[in-house]
UniProtKB/TrEMBL annotation:
Coiled coil: none
Short name of any one Pfam family annotated for the protein: Beta_helix
Top-level taxonomic group: Eukaryota
Name by which UniProt lists this protein: Right handed beta helix domain-containing protein
Domain Right handed beta helix: 27-104
InterPro entries: Beta_helix, Pectin_lyas_fold, Pectin_lyase_fold/virulence
SUPFAM superfamilies, per the entry: Pectin lyase-like (SSF51126)
Species for this entry: Durusdinium trenchii
Stretch list, region Disordered: 123-145
């Protein structure tokens, strides 16, 4: 089994990847994006049966998903604090953890208002146990003292 289908990693250079009608199936992680200000655009792609995560984006990266299928992964899409995602018309089914999770960091203020969007997606019914029950989670730091 291949550990990662696609890994983008850069400390300084901006990386851009456009995927269309591609499949990443049966991996450890489908896509890991850790390049500063890197952009990944996916349309009509399928990420399925990945042990850990379908997509994991961090270090100020940007992810755009349109009409993609994120199926039966450990977690579907994880967007770390400082990164952003636009997810539209995609389907999520059978992911064991959250279908989409925006992870905040205790020292960061995660703001989704104008930076990320989740529009017109479908979230399938649970297949068995808790798989597929968890839809969207947003972790933020509370500004209250």
């Amino acid at each position: 089994m291949c550990e990662v289908g696609l890994r983008l990693s850069s400390a300084r250079a901006q990386l851009e990847v456009n995927l269309s009608q591609d499949s990443l199936i049966g991996l450890g992680d489908g896509i890991v994006i850790q390049g500063s200000t890197s952009n990944v655009e996916m349309e009509g792609c399928r990420i399925a049966d990945c042990k850990r995560m379908g997509i994991h984006a961090f270090k100020e990266s940007n992810v755009t998903l349109r009409q993609c299928q994120i199926l039966r992964n450990g977690r579907g899409v994880v967007i770390a604090s400082g990164s952003r995602a636009d997810i539209s018309r995609s389907s999520f089914e059978g992911n064991t953890g959250w279908a989409v999770r925006f992870e905040g960091h205790p020292d960061d203020d995660l703001s989704l208002g104008s930076t990320s969007s989740i529009v017109g997606n479908s979230f399938g019914c649970p297949e068995k146990g808790n798989a597929g029950r968890k839809r969207v989670r947003v972790d933020t730091r509370s500004s209250e003292t």
